[in-house]
Design a protein that fits this description.
Elements lengths: L7 H4 L8 E3 L1 H4 L3 H18 L1 E5 L5 H15 L3 H5 L11 E3 L16 E6 L25 H27 L5 H6 L5 E7 L13 E4 L5 E5 L6 E4 L5 E3 L7 E5 L1 H6 L9 E3 L10 E3 L2 E3 L6 E2 L15 E2 H11 L5
Parallel strand pairs: 1-2
Antiparallel strand pairs: 2-10, 3-4, 4-5, 5-12, 5-13, 6-11, 7-10, 7-13, 8-9, 8-11, 14-15
Length: 328
């Protein structure tokens, strides 16, 4: 078994643009097309922690409709939106008000509000006792539930394909990630960044510098710019993507598994820089394992030794949710 090495190029990257890959080259391409996609995916995630995906399975019309529904929901009166705060789920489902969440170790809150959609489970599923029930604004927006469950499923399919593609360079079985993510605690977060209020603490930004918790995040291109990643030389790099593409990044769980060979890259959403101070909508899909999945360093990535102790997906998630202020 070979040991995966971090390339010296990753430490001295001269690549200044996040690569764009075609998912169809993996799902519909020749053997050489698939091999090229796997290599480009692994290299892109290793170099940046991010790639951009085109020619994927998520329909553009469904993305456009989703953003229309978000605009409609977030225009509702505050008292209506707050009626959808879960009394028991610790903001893991339903509505989370503006200024509630902060980045890990940040002294100030982010300038955003959001809604969480989780997995729908059959009544007999044992995970019903762990996963909170979804909440839906059926009265105000009847099509909300059906549309966002459809989007959840489509984004999960894209995530399954990309995780499968990573099994070859990581030297694990082809179904390694599929087994870990079956009935996983994945979340579709429906974000609204309103215009920056007057008098806000100048330290506050739309989303302060942070890393994601999960395996991978799949982010349909947002309605406005502002997303930046911290490049290997410490500079902030704008992530520029075409409409209807998917931005994919590595989360802390995959970084732990790969011993930081695939790094969880710091990123942020900055406040508007062009003077427009407009609304911004975004829909990241956070792909998680099932609660009992063990996050253990992969043999091919150990090198001189594992950097992190073993921990279950559920324990790691709860630890991080406390750190960002969503649960106590």
């Amino acid at each position: 078994m070979r040991t995966i090495e971090t390339s010296s190029h990753a430490e001295n990257s001269t690549l200044r643009k996040v690569p764009t890959l075609s998912l169809a080259s993996y799902t519909q391409g020749t053997g050489s097309d698939k091999a090229r996609f796997i290599d480009q995916l692994f290299t892109g995630l290793k170099e940046y922690g991010f790639i951009i995906l085109k020619d994927h399975n998520v329909k553009a019309a469904d993305l456009h409709k989703a953003y229309e529904l978000l605009e409609k929901f977030y225009a509702l009166p505050e008292e209506v939106k707050k009626s959808y705060i879960s009394p028991t789920a610790g903001f893991q489902r339903g509505y989370t008000p503006f200024g509630k969440e902060h980045a890990k170790d940040s002294p100030v809150m982010d300038l955003k509000e959001f809604w969480h959609v989780g997995r729908e489970l059959a009544p007999a599923n044992a995970l019903k006792s762990i996963y909170p029930d979804n909440i839906w604004p059926d009265k105000e927006i009847p099509e909300f539930k059906e549309h966002f469950l459809k989007l959840f499923a489509a984004l999960e399919v894209a995530g399954d394909v990309m995780l499968e593609a990573l099994t070859m360079p990581l030297e694990v079985d082809k179904d390694f990630f599929a087994r870990m993510t079956k009935d996983g605690n994945s979340i579709l977060r429906l974000l609204h960044y309103p215009p920056i209020p007057e008098g806000v603490d100048p330290r506050c930004v739309r989303a302060a510098a942070h890393e994601d918790i999960n395996f991978i995040t799949i982010l349909p291109a947002a309605t406005a710019s502002g997303l930046q990643l911290k490049d290997r030389d410490g500079t902030w790099l704008d992530i520029e993507s075409e409409p209807d593409t998917l931005i994919v990044d590595v989360g802390d769980m995959l970084a732990r598994l790969s011993n930081d060979i695939l790094p969880s890259t710091t990123h942020r959403v900055i406040n508007p820089q062009d003077g427009t101070n407009s609304h911004r909508y975004s829909m990241p899909f956070f792909m998680h394992p099932h609660p009992d999945a063990m996050l253990s360093c992969l043999p091919s990535c150990k090198g001189a030794g594992a950097k992190y102790p073993d921990i279950t997906g559920q324990d790691f998630l709860m630890q991080r949710l406390r750190e960002i202020g969503l649960i106590k």
